[in-house]
Amino acid sequence: MKLLTSLRWAATASLLAAAPLFAQATTVLERWEEDRTQVFTSDEVTMAELQWLARPLVVFADTPNDPRFQQQMDRLAAGLEDLAERDVIIITDTDPAAESEWRTELRPRGYMMALVAKDGRVALRKPSPWSVRELSRSIDKMPLRQQEIADRRALGG
Fold it and tell me: d(Cα 75, Cα 37) in Å, to the nearest integer?
């Protein structure tokens, strides 16, 4: 009986010790839902987990020191709330050697920005930085976004 109690205590203690690990083990989508203004790296998120839930905006460069990359990130930072309203998740990839899924699928050369629609198709590719206003206009023209806007109006929101 004493051995059984000791084993139960050991199992309970190990679960309690691991509890902080479980609390930290949240998915990218959970983290994004908590704060839609955060930026993720290409090794943190896959295309499949975002399909039909978010519009990935992937900003590529061969190095984070690329002036176009820095300019794009500054422009995005100025309008994160507008992008969050449109279900945009920002993903960066500045390591060509890592050969991420995003890089393999979208095949950038140096700096490139790509907007992927919720259905997984590439909606926009740009070789130079764009403003949030330009991005928002492109997103708002998408059929699914038009439906989202109509649905919000119908619900009174």
Answer: 13
Digitized pLDDT (tens) for each residue of the chain, 157 residues in all: 454 444 344 444 444 444 444 445 488 889 999 999 999 999 999 999 999 999 999 999 999 999 999 999 999 999 999 999 999 999 999 999 999 999 999 999 999 999 999 999 999 999 999 999 999 999 999 999 999 989 989 888 6
Region at 156 (left for phi over 0; alpha for psi -120 to 50; beta for the rest): left
Written as one letter, the residue type at 132 is V
How many helices (H) and strands (E) are present in the chain, helices listed first? 8, 5
At the fourth CATH level, the homologous superfamily of domain 35-154 is Glutaredoxin (3.40.30.10)
Both ends of the chain: CA-CA distance in Å? 62
